[in-house]
Amino acid sequence: MQIELHQSVDADGSALNNKYDIERPIFLQPxxxxxxxxxxxxxxxxxxxxxxxxxxxxxHFLPFFSETKTSLLKPKTLQSxxxxxxxxxxxxxxxxxxxxxxxxCTASAGLLKQYDQxxxxxxxxxxxDEIMTALERCGFRSFRxxxxxxxxxxxxxxxxxxxxxxxxNLRSNTRRAKSKLDSSGEFRIEISCQEDLEQRLNDYFSxxxxxxxxEESHPEFLCAVSRLAASNNQLRLGVVYHxxxxxxxxxxxxxxxxxxxxxxxxxxxxxxxSVGNVLTMEMxxxxxxxxxxxxxxxxxxxxxxxxxxxxxxxxxxxVIVTNPKxxxxxxxxxxxxxxxxxxMFFQV
Length: 348
What we know:
Elements lengths: L1 E5 L23 H10 L5 E10 L2 E11 L9 E4 L11 E2 L6 H13 L4 E7 L1 H13 L3 E13 L5 H6 L3 H17 L2 E6 L4 H13 L9 H13 L3 E8 L2 E11 L2 E9 L8 H15 L5 E6 L5 H4 L2 E11 L4 H21 L1
Parallel strand pairs: 4-6, 11-12
Antiparallel strand pairs: 1-2, 2-3, 3-4, 3-5, 6-13, 7-12, 7-13, 8-9, 9-10, 10-11
Helix pairs in contact: 1-7, 2-3, 5-8
Protein name: BioF2-like acetyltransferase domain-containing protein
Pfam families: Acetyltransf_6
C-alpha cells in the first residue's frame, strides 16, 4: 500500500469525495470531513490527510489536522479530525475489514515519524488495538485512555421485542404520555428525510435554543451534514409539534441496518408532557418498522437516561501515540508513563 499526504480532503480538485464508497455512516464519509474543514477547523489548524492507494486506486484515508504554529516547548502534534460531533473515528473509504486499519497505520508510519505525538479519538477498543499494534512495531510508544461510553441495542427483531427490553418505568410512562398527547388532539409527530428539510432544520434549532443544552456551536456544519445525509436517504429528522409549534426534535442517521441517534432536544417547558421520550419511542418504531434496522446506537456519552433505552454499553477510547525518537516525543512518552504511575499509586 502507498500512502500520500494531502492538505485537504478536496486537495486534488475532484475531491477524495468522488473516489470512495459513500455507503457508510455519514460521519465516516469524505464529505463529512470536507464540511468539518470548512466549518470547524479554524485558521490555526491545517488538515493533514493520509490517503492510501492499492494498485494506483484509492482505498482508504485517515483525516487529521495539526497546528499551524510551532514552538520550542510545544510538541508537534497530529490530531484526528474529530470533536464532540464525532461519534467514531475510522478509515474513510470502502467498507473496512478486520486488519485494514492496522495495515494502513503500518504503511503510514514513515510519514508519522515527523510528529512528536499523534492523538486519535474516539475509537472502539478493537480499533485502538490495531493502531497500537501497528505503530509500536514501527518504534512508537502508545497509550490508551477511556474517553466516554457508547450505549446501543443490537439484534432487534421487532419494535415490540426492542421496547420490551427497555426500562419498565420508561415503557409505562412513555406510553401513558403518548396516549395523553394523542387524546388532546393538539400534538403531532413528523418524521422525514428530505421533505420540508429546511423548515425541519429551522424547527430543530428553535427547539435546541430553548432546551437544557448549550448553544449549538457550529449550526452551519450540522445543516451541511444533514443535507448531505438527506441526499443519500440517511437522515431521519423527527419533530413533535404542539399546535404547529415545534416542541421536541431529534436528528438520526441510518446506514444499512443501524440507526444512529445523533442529536436530540426538547423545550424545557414541555418536559412534563415527556415529549422527548415520546419522540424517541416513535423514532425507534419508525426506524425498526420502516427502515428495517436491527441496531440502534446512542453514540457518545454515558448519560443515565440512555441505559433506560439501550441494553449494552462499551468503552470509547482514545490513543496517544508518542515518538521516542524525537526529543519532545520522548518527553510526551515520559509524561504518559508518569500519568500511569500516578494513577496506579492513587488507586492503591
